[in-house]
Structure formats: structure tokens, C-alpha cells
Design a protein that fits this description.
By secondary structure, the protein is of the alpha/beta class. It folds into 2 domains: about 160 residues, Medium-chain alcohol dehydrogenases, catalytic domain (Quinone Oxidoreductase, Chain A, domain 1); about 130 residues, NAD(P)-binding Rossmann-like Domain (Rossmann fold), CATH 3.40.50.720. Helix 8 links the parallel strand 14 and strand 15. It is an enzyme of class 1 (oxidoreductase). InterPro entries: ADH-like_N (IPR013154), ER (IPR020843), GroES-like_sf (IPR011032), NAD(P)-bd_dom_sf (IPR036291).
Length: about 325
């Protein structure tokens, strides 16, 4: 099978096709024929070498990709028949990628607990780009355990993770404060954000002024770290999605969160799929690239200011 990966770290140009043996599903696994794979910032971190410590001792090619959409090709033994994971089923899957096991692959053997039926009516490209980011948002909110009425500030609120934090937070009765570019105001209102604070210098002070006081928690999707910490109340919480060793003081709890911890949380994935179907969360428009154009896809990823989800598509010779 074809995969898109790398044998050395560097810029987008290091990505290229490789041929690997076709995988087979083991017990409690399914084989997914990948039609599209989401492209995320963590993929660029792998490609550039920022995650090299994870890959020490692994044999290249290293294959990025943490989310896919496709059809089930084969079902291993012991898969719960009530889950609907039968041959031909249209599914999305979370990929805890490592070494040559990654979403940029024509076929993937995945734990059945990491695979759920795709949202009804969703295109392959749109379906491929929601699960990782929605599950990341779910992981943040579960860690915070905020009661209804609490105030949640979301940085990078117009991005995919930020958007799902806004929508899920609103659905759970939180007062959501969105930090993003002024041009994204209409998008954020459509997602349900109650208060908008334009990003830029002095963001914590401007948020405090707008709200008349501090927030209970910050979901820091934009990696503002110490710049946003003053907006959090004493004893509040900050959710960090990448490494930060800062200490904001004032009894604020810094929670370092990694979505890989939820890689087999099937119940959470089913709930997110259901919420995509009932409109609680919104699938972002897709920006598809052919898998052979992965270099161009990563160049676009690094340019930023994306409101679509980049995905790689595999045509399997069709």
C-alpha cells in the first residue's frame, strides 16, 4: 500500500510516497480503507522533528495523520456486532500514530474502539477533518468539569479546536468568551459565543475590562500562555494543548492535556458523531489535496489563517 511519510525531518518537501505491506486486522480491530486523512498542526510537528523524542528507535518512514475517514474493508475477531462496524460501513477513525502507523495511509488497522460510523450525510473530506479536533475540545472540557454558568475563555476560537470548544461549551451552559480576529466575529456568533474579544496586544487586560472581572477557565488553543493567564480568576484553570512550563501563580491550575489519552474512548467519539448529526457541533468545510500533493498541503497548513480543514484524499486507483 502507499503511505505518505518521511525518512528525515525538515520542511514540507521531505514528505513523499512510500510503499509498505498491507496491514491486516487483529483481534478487536478493523481494517479501514482510507479515503481521506485530516492534516493537523501536530503532523507538521512530527515532520519538522519537534516530536523526534517520540520516534527514537523507530524505523522510517514516519507517517503522520491522526484522523481518517473511509470504509471498513475487513473486521477482526471479537468486534462488538452492535457497533455497526461491518464490511463496507462508512466510518471515521482516531489514529494514535507512531512510527509507520499513521493516517496518511491507503489502509489502516485500527482498534474497533477508535472507529465509529461517520456522521450521516457528511462528505468523506468533511468527515475526515473533525474527529481529532472535536475530541481535543471534549478532552479539555472534561478536564475542566465546569458547572453551567461558569465562564470559559477560548483563545484561537475561530480555529477548528477553538470552534468546537465554543460550540460544546455553549451546549453545556457555559458563558463562552471567544478570542479571535475581528474578521471572525460572524463565524463566532454563529457558533454561539456570547462575548467576543479581538486578539492582539493586552488581550488579558482587554478581556477583564470587557467582562468586568476574570474568567473561571481558559482553553488556550492559540498558545498564548502567560499573555492570557491574568484573565483567569484566583484558583481557576488553564488548559494547555502544547508544552508550557510557566506558573501563573494565584492558585491557578495548569492542565497539560493530550488527546492521545482518549484514543480508545469510543463513548466520547460516538457522542461527538451524534452531536455532529444533530447540529450541536459543525463540520468545517474541507480543503482537499490529493495525497500525492502532501507537500502543497503542508505548505498551506504553515501559511495559517485557515477556516477550512485540510485533508489528503486517496483514490485507490479509481
Amino acid at each position: 500500500m502507499k503511505v505518505i511519510g518521511l525518512s528525515e525531518y525538515g520542511g514540507p518537501e521531505v514528505l513523499r510516497p512510500f510503499e509498505l505491506p498491507d496491514p491486516r486486522p487483529g483481534a478487536q480491530e478493523v481494517l479501514v480503507r482510507v479515503l481521506a486523512a485530516g492534516v493537523n498542526p501536530v503532523d507538521a510537528m512530527l515532520r519538522s522533528g519537534q516530536l523526534r523524542q517520540m520516534y527514537q528507535g523507530k524505523t522510517p518512514p514516519f507517517v503522520p495523520g491522526m484522523e481518517v475517514a473511509g470504509t471498513i474493508e475487513e473486521v477482526g475477531s471479537g468486534v462488538n456486532p452492535r457497533w455497526g462496524l461491518v464490511a463496507g460501513a462508512y466510518v471515521v477513525g482516531f489514529v494514535d500514530n507512531l512510527g509507520s502507523h499513521g493516517g496518511y495511509s491507503e489502509y489502516l488497522a485500527l482498534s474497533a474502539r477508535s472507529v465509529v460510523l461517520a456522521p450521516t450525510g457528511a462528505s468523506t473530506a468533511a468527515a475526515a477533518g473533525f474527529l481529532n479536533n472535536a475530541l481535543t475540545a471534549r478532552n479539555v472540557l472534561d478536564a475542566f468539569r465546569l458547572p453551567p454558568g461558569a465562564t470559559l475563555l477560548v483563545t484561537g476560537a475561530a480555529g477548528s479546536v477553538g470552534g468546537y470548544l465554543v460550540e460544546l461549551g455553549v451546549s453545556e451552559g457555559l458563558h463562552v468568551v471567544a478570542v479571535a480576529a475581528e474578521d471572525d466575529a460572524d463565524l463566532l456568533r454563529s457558533l454561539g459565543a456570547q462575548t467576543l474579544v479581538p486578539r492582539g496586544p493586552g488581550i488579558a487586560e482587554r478581556a477583564l475590562k470587557e467582562l468586568g472581572g476574570p474568567v473561571d477557565a481558559v482553553a488556550d488553543a492559540a498558545l498564548l500562555h502567560k499573555r492570557i493567564a491574568p484573565a483567569v480568576r484566583e484558583g481557576g484553570q488553564i488548559g494547555i494543548l502544547r508544552s508550557w512550563d510557566g506558573d501563573p501563580g494565584r492558585g491557578i491550575t495548569v492542565k497539560h492535556l493530550n488527546v492521545r489519552e482518549r484514543d480508545r474512548d469510543r463513548d466520547a467519539m460516538v457522542r461527538l458523531r451524534d452531536q455532529a448529526e444533530d447540529g450541536t457541533i459543525t463540520l468545517r468545510p474541507a480543503l482537499p489535496f490529493d495525497a500525492d500533493d502532501a507537500v502543497a498541503a503542508h505548505i498551506r497548513l504553515e501559511q495559517g489563517a485557515l477556516r477550512e480543514r485540510i485533508v489528503l484524499t486517496f483514490d485507490h486507483g479509481n
